[in-house]
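User: Here's a structure from my thesis project, written as structure tokens. My advisor, Dr. K., wants to see whether a designed sequence matches the one we expressed. Can you design one independently, without my sequence as a hint?
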């Protein structure tokens, strides 16, 4: 992503201007899945073309029902054109306005570059949307892009928006318990040492 990234996500997909899309699942997720396999119902908000959705679906097999959600209809149409690896589904929709049948139904959420894409003013709403989507004791597994800044992209411009561990702790502590966090050993080129993985559990 560059400082020119707008939040007209549908337009980005229509114009195939999606620099965040690396054509493969997040390396931190792939590494995590070698140690632990989320099962049950899994939501991937802001899933884009669905690389992470397919990674989770392939790992979980019949024990995982992975739903990728994205605002952009073109992203969901393109994700649906890719051959299925398991029981994954793609739904066009707004994470902040989940359909009733999805609310309170998830065992896991996988967060990757949705939190950093939304306006920082909406972060409390993001936490509430996560809590609304999960079952009690459900887990939010996340790779947070703490520091997306460089010479060309500075704080206060468009997405991606950075955050700190302290901010995350303050945002999530009201509804979630912190299970663990770690710096991923593997990252896309350019994101090394700029991400933080975390597991939070809904109370
Ligand atoms: C930077 S892109 C990342 C896409 C994907 N996670 C990836 O890494 O390729 C952010 C995505 O979040 C989606 N998005 C933004 N706000 C959303 C919302 N409120 N509900 C669902 N999806 C949203 C956008 O359409 C876009 O596909």
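Assistant: Designed independently from the structure alone:
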């Amino acid at each position: 992503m560059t400082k020119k990234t707008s939040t007209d996500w549908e337009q980005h997909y229509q114009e195939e201007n999606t620099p965040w899309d690396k054509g493969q699942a997040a390396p931190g997720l792939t590494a995590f899945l070698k140690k632990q396999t989320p099962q049950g119902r899994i939501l991937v908000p802001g899933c884009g073309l669905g690389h992470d959705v397919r990674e989770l679906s392939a790992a979980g097999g019949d024990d995982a029902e992975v739903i990728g959600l994205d605002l952009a209809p073109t992203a969901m149409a393109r994700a649906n054109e890719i051959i299925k690896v398991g029981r994954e589904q793609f739904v066009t929709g707004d994470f902040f306005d989940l359909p009733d049948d999805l609310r309170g139904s998830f065992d896991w959420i996988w967060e990757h570059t949705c939190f950093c894409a939304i306006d920082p003013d909406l972060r409390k709403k993001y936490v509430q949307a996560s809590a609304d989507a999960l079952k009690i004791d459900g887990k939010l597994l996340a790779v947070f892009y703490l520091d997306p800044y460089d010479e060309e992209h500075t704080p206060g411009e468009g997405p991606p928006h950075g955050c700190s561990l302290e901010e995350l702790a303050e945002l999530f502590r009201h509804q979630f318990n912190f299970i663990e966090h770690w710096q991923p050993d593997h990252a896309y080129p350019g994101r090394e040492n700029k991400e933080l993985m975390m597991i939070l559990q809904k109370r």
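When you compare it with your expressed construct, this may help: Helices lie at 9-14, 27-33, 51-60, 73-81, 123-133, 165-172.
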